Target: GGDEF domain-containing protein
Amino acid sequence: MDKIEFLRTLFDYVRVVDPSDKAIKYTFRPEEFPVITQNKCFDFWKQNKICDNCISMSAIKANKTLVKFEIESGKLYLVMASPYEVNGKVCALELIKDITHTNFVEAIDQNKTTDYSDLIARLNQAVITDDLTGLYNKRYVEEHLPYDIKMISYSDKNIFIGIADIDHFKNINDSYGHLVGDKVLTKIGTILKASIRSERDWIARYGGEEFIIVIKGEDEKIFRVICERIRKEVEATKMKFSDQEFNVTISIGGVGIHPSTKCHFEDLISRADENLYKAKNNGRNQCIVEFVHK
Model:
């Protein structure tokens, strides 16, 4: 770690983070910098949850240095993250600089374009939000699902992943046009979001007409009930756009794992996807869910 010590003269805080479990592997803090009392990287931001826009995970996936801004206790920070190997594992080198009292911030205030804290919050949210539906996007899935899976290994809670796909969506686009197709996607997203507990579960648009449903802390029976309730709600909803009215259905493939189950997030999605294809091949408009015990 000695080779990165010189960075302390340029940044207020230097640390190496393993974003897969948000653990701080190495840290340097000058005496005047706020003390970190916890061992998770997101504790510094005092959000009691992982960052929506996890720049360290993004830097590792993109294999390049990325930059973002964050607000904490009225201070504005510049955050840089770069891939950094520690003992054969790729982690992230995070460099944090307090830029509250700089010409950059003064320029924003003088122009009075917007309050910078609000601007940064909106920018960070936009990175992980699907433009069309307002749900989380694929990037959010790839950055947050691995952590959710890892965290259940420290608890006694199950986690379930469902993939919901709109049946015959191409026919909708062909018959009514892509603008109507977009409205159907937005409507389905609204139904899905209303069917979960926002405080711990989440929904994302995974791509095209596919949605990811993540349910934490429930048994297999409850997850099946949630999936079936979503399917029935979609089936019963009239799609009304101008002078057009029609119904759509969805198919759902799901998989759940126990805290003791060792599973990579991509394998879990692949397993749910296999069950989705089974639902499609069995006639669509149905849910096929399994629970993996090992």
Notes: The chain has two domains: 2-127, 138-292.
